[in-house]
Amino acid sequence: MIRFIFYLVLTTILAPFFVGTAQAEPYRILDNNIWVYHDLFVERFGMDPENVDNTLSGARGVAIRLVPLARQRCHQTDSGTREEKCYPSWQWLLDLYIDIDQDIGIVGDSPRQFKPWRSSIYFLARKNPELRKRWEDVFGLKGGRLYLEDGKGKRREVPFEIFGYKRPIKDGLMMIQARINEEIILADPGEKRIIEFSDSTGKLLHRVTLPQSYWPRFAALRAKYAAITEKNWKGGVEKDPHIWVYTKQFAEKYHMPQENISNEMEGAMAMAFRMDSWGTYSHQKFSTPERLNFPNMELWDIYLPENAKLYYADPTIDNFYDGFHPSDYFIHEKTNRNDWDGTYPHLIAGEGLKTGGAHIYREWIYKRRFKIFNWVKTDKKTRWSGGPIYNQMYMQPQVLQTDFIFLEEFDGLSRVGADQYLVFSDMNAKSLRSDYLYESKYHKSRIPTPFMKKSLEYRKRIMDKKRALIRMKKKRSQAGGQNK
Question: Where do the H-state alpha helices sit in 101-182?
């Protein structure tokens, strides 16, 4: 609940960045999913009855959405040269809700079932194919296939990549998250959409048939995002949006470019900073493709030594991922339980996922001025100040089969300073004290100054472009109103 309140407050704070000035009208995250579900979702969760279609077979609910990825997808031009044309990258996602007792062939430790396609790990794996294969084997989630079937029973397979799995996401349900492409959306509504799950031998375990009444409802969504085409979500190469820094050993082991090596790095093997897109918002004018493609979330990926001491309330947790507003965020269950309760089977119901966090500390000069008659004295003292940032993702080395712990932290950047540190904590009140940098019994990492400077410049460029776009649209709108 605390984390939900934090996100809600954050979106309110970020509102002025989208519109230039604060708005009096409500500003909140919009459920951008198109839903279909059984009566169960109305009875148990209080969802809208208009989305009920009990012809949905093999699943209790389905949600599909189009999301911006805040990075560029670049295609070679038709000229035959090496020139590229880049487009903002978008992705179609599908969430599938199935009864918890149904065997769909996913085995192993369910918290480990994740493919990190939005983080810097995705781009690290592109340079290290052996790592990518190893992680895909570890993360599992194989066996799901999506088919289009015409009236004569002829099938063709369409892309369907499972990247997330929550068990149970709500009482009696598990949720499977998959990446799809627009072929399933734009195909003839009369064609059947069938998802099948098989075991390792290919034996069919479970079949889901999506209702035919579902697909005409996507026409309004595509009209809203008419500027988004196949080149935004298919083919080409997605460019790495991260600002990187790492040790020489990390660069050599994982085949990373030499220009990002830093001798200032202490306590970490690598760091990567990016800005990502939050999602859609309650007002149409905030949810245009142009605005959504401008990132507004600041994320740090931290690669720590495998022996780094971190705080976690439950020592059995070796992996977690909050995700970027999957559809379960918008399930309005009638009880007071929050979205994170019960996500992981080994947690006691109601406890949720309790973890520590981190603080960015920077050194600053505290000045005091004394004036006695005509004599002025300035007293300078060095102090440390810091603010918390919050865990988004955490994976242990045994999950990744690597020599590092992977963390993704979510919050704003500090100012550039000569010495800045990322200090991990249990997030209690004492952690906010200025002397905690020295007292902390948990891991500390020094942040290289050039890396922090480049990250801040990256953020400024994005925010300047966003504000320029908003001003330009405002002028056009005003000019259009005057011409009427």
Answer: 120-127, 129-139
Residues 184 and 264 in one domain: no
Final residue of a structural domain among 210, 239, 268? 239
CB atoms inside a 10 Å sphere around CB 235: 12
Q: How many domains does the chain contain in total?
A: 2
- What's the Cα-to-Cα distance from 260 to each of 235, 253, 271, rounded to whole Å? 28, 14, 10
What is the pLDDT tens value at each position of the chain, 484 positions in all?
A: 444 444 444 444 344 443 333 344 444 567 789 999 999 999 888 899 999 999 999 999 999 998 888 889 999 887 666 788 999 888 899 999 999 889 888 765 555 556 678 889 989 999 999 888 877 776 656 778 999 999 899 999 999 988 877 776 666 888 888 999 888 998 998 999 999 999 878 899 999 999 999 999 998 888 888 888 889 988 889 999 999 999 999 999 999 999 999 999 999 999 999 988 766 554 555 556 666 666 778 889 999 998 888 876 554 555 555 556 678 877 876 654 444 343 333 333 333 344 566 777 776 655 666 666 666 666 655 556 666 777 777 777 877 778 998 888 887 666 676 678 888 877 666 666 666 677 778 888 999 999 999 998 998 888 888 788 777 877 777 776 665 5
Q: Which residue has the tokens 């149409």?
A: 284
CA distance 198 to 22: 51
Peptide bond into 257 cis (omega under 30): no
Range of the domain at 366: 242-308+356-484
Q: Is the pTM of this model over 0.85?
A: no
How does DSSP classify residue 286? G
What tokens were used for 114? 């994740």
Give, as one character, the DSSP assignment of residue 29: B
Question: Does some domain include residue 7?
Answer: no
Q: Is residue 255 located within the same domain as residue 145?
A: no
